[in-house]
Amino acid sequence: MVELEIRELEYFVALADELHFGRAAVRLSIAQPALSKAIRRIETRLGVPLFIRSSRHVELTPAGEALQEHGRHALNAVSAAIRHAQRAGDTQAHLRLVLKPGGDGGLLSGLLAEYAHQPDARQVDILFSGPADRADFLRDGRADVGLLYAPFDDLDGLAHETLHTEDRVVIVPAGHRLAGRNSVRMSDLEGETLPRWKGIPGGDGTGPEVADVVQMLQMITVGRMIGVLPRSLVEPVPGGLVCVPVADAPPSRLVLAWIEQDRRPLVASFVAAALRSRRDKTRSDIDRPPPS
Predict the structure, then answer these.
(1) Going by DSSP bridges, is the β-strand pair 196-197/145-150 parallel, antiparallel, or unpaired?
(2) 52 secondary structure, DSSP code
(3) How far apart, in whole angstroms, are the C-alpha atoms of residue 198 and residue 133?
């Protein structure tokens, strides 16, 4: 079997990304002739051309396109393995929690307070991510636990516990045709412009691309789109906007997630604290008197 060293794969991926020997060499901090020699050596070892070169441009061959896709995955897997190994051996490591801004369903303060009572509690570093990559933070070792939303986030390969379930609402400007309704159905939204989320391919959105809830709410305020979100992400409702429950939208679940194979005590301790916090909140909700 033909083998490539990690460094050689890094050389190839850099050139595949840049499609320019000079830029790739700068990115790698090596001389351009050394990069050219390394690429020729890789092609000779594999027995297939990876690039089509001319005096004016560089492009990938079909073999190069295949190696670019799988090679990037391989490099990411190596980086993740290194991070996980380092974290597993660090007995003083802080616990890193990833979530999107405002994406805690109002539970974060209680969860952190409950965890702080643990005798083995560590400092918790809170990391904020974009709309699409919280699960990636867990998979590549940048975070230990994360607050994710199901069914929107990809939970494949992740263990998870549901902390909170809530309905979904459509957010519209105050003068919108749906603003006065007590509730709507998904069919009522047909023909409306929905956002495209940055970093998330596919979806039903045809409107402007947004990177977070704040951008989406700004676009809704100026009448460029409407949006459907878990209720907690838009409470309190900004002025000029109205939230209407979507009766037949699947409920949204806020989950605490972590790598399925992660058995470290600091993760288990945080999960246990989260489950206690969930139980206490459920009990307090039951005991709270109904509004008069």
Answers:
(1) unpaired
(2) E
(3) 10
